[in-house]
Amino acid sequence: MKAILYTRYGPPSNMHLDEVEKPVPGDNQILIKVKAASVNSYDWRHLRANPFFIRFMVGGLFKPKHRILGADVAGTVEAVGRNVTQFKSGDDVFGEGSYGGFAEYVCVDENRFILKPDNQTFDEAAAVPMAALTALQGLRDKGKIQAKQKVLVNGASGGVGTFAVQIARSFEAEVTGVCSTSKMDLVRSLGADNVVDYTKEDVTKNNQKYDLILDTAAHRSVSDYKRILNPDGVYVLVGGSISRIFQLMFKSKSGVKNIGTMVASINQKDLLFLAELLKSGKIKSVIDKRFPLADTAEAFRYFEAGHTRGKIVITV
Ligand SMILES: NC(=O)c1ccc[n+]([C@@H]2O[C@H](COP(=O)([O-])OP(=O)(O)OC[C@H]3O[C@@H](n4cnc5c(N)ncnc54)[C@H](OP(=O)(O)O)[C@@H]3O)[C@@H](O)[C@H]2O)c1
Q: Is there a single domain that holds both residue 88 and residue 112?
């Protein structure tokens, strides 16, 4: 089968299309014929080994242990392992593996996938898992979002942000999205009540207070964000620079309770929750660009520029 291999950490030019053996599903795995995959910073961090300690975490100190990237996948089940009970050959599924999605076939654990809603294309479904789970778990689990709360989504136009705006609206919160000028219409169209253009206005200085801030970009200091939080407000950092994340972790360990970081975790219950929102039309994927499998390196160059409008999808 064809797959995008990377055998050295570094720039996207280290990725190339190659022929590799088709994988065989383990006992609890399904073999998926990939129709679409999407790009996440998770993949990009593995490609670049950024931060450096990712090499220790995945067990590839000098060269990548997993030679095919791609976590978010949508496709059709072609074979199942002997312990698999939830899927059969021919089922259309989507979910989040860890590696291997930028290829014609991938094997994944069955408990990381669910059936694809009929009203979603494969491209749309592949754009969902990691970004939407991050938004959902950040807002609902870490942020304890409630109806009528004032919620700020910083970085509202990217993969996580476009889902966060819609998910916050589905909880009937009043949403303010922060993005750059050219994306204001997009963020408004996703349901944001207010949109702040970060190139013209500093959201931490406009005298507004929020009950919940979901931050995917983290360009301000912790004290700036604390200033715009209501007394019981919660600040949840899901993205941004590694130094800012460490700063936040340090602060939250030193007794400040209403700020924190989070890492999304894949589970079927939350995927099913998102599938219901997709079926009802309360959320939808925003796809900026589609790249054929052979042009995956180009997709990564576009992604690492940092101004994606929603998600980037690899079509297989
Ligand atoms: N915690 C987790 O489990 C988890 C999971 C997934 C992702 N993440 C992290 O979340 C972050 C966002 O991921 P993503 O996939 O959404 O990335 P993305 O699609 O590249 O989106 C990044 C967004 O940040 C915006 N941005 C850039 N500078 C900004 C600024 N100064 N103020 C406000 N917004 C700004 C950009 O908007 P403009 O184009 O309008 O500038 C862009 O839309 C990344 O750091 C990623 O590592 C964390």
A: yes
Cβ of 90: how many Cβ atoms within 10 Å?
Answer: 8
Is residue 280 domain-resident?
Answer: no
Which amino acid appears at position 162 of this protein? Answer: T
Ligand 1 atom closest to Cα of residue 306: 20
Q: Which of 160, 249, 301 to mutate to test the pocket of ligand 1 (most atoms within 8 A of CB)?
A: 160
pLDDT score, position 256: 52
pLDDT reported for residue 222: 76
- Please enumerate in sequence order all residues whose Cβ is within 8 A of that of 263, keeping only pairs 6 or more positions apart, or say none: none
Write the DSSP symbol of residue 232.
Answer: E
Q: Take residue 96 and report the two structure tokens written for it.
A: 């989040």
CATH assignment at residue 226: 3.40.50.720
Range of the domain at 142: 130-261
8 Å CB contact between 30 and 116: no
Phi and psi, residue 82, nearest 5° = -70, -20
234 and 224 Cβ atoms separated by less than 8 Å: no
Distance between Cα 162 and ligand 1 center (Å): 10
Smallest Cα–Cα separation from 310: which of 158, 124, 126? Answer: 158
SS3 235: strand
- pLDDT average per 10 residues of sequence, the chain (316 residues): 94 96 97 98 92 78 88 98 98 97 98 98 98 98 97 97 98 98 98 97 92 90 85 89 72 63 93 98 98 98 94 98
236 shares its domain with 292:
no
Q: Is 162 in the pocket of ligand 1 (CB under 6 A)?
A: no
CA proximity to 161, closest of 136, 143, 144, 141: 136
Q: What's the confidence (pLDDT) of residue 255?
A: 47
Q: Determine the pLDDT at residue 240.
A: 78
Core vs surface per residue 62-84: b (16+ CB within 10 A) or e: eebeebbbbbbbbbbbebbbeeb
What is the rounded CA–CA span in Å between residue 106 and residue 109?
A: 10
Q: Kindly compute the dihedral angle of the four CA atoms of residues 238, 242, 247, 248, in this order, to the nearest 10 degrees.
A: 10
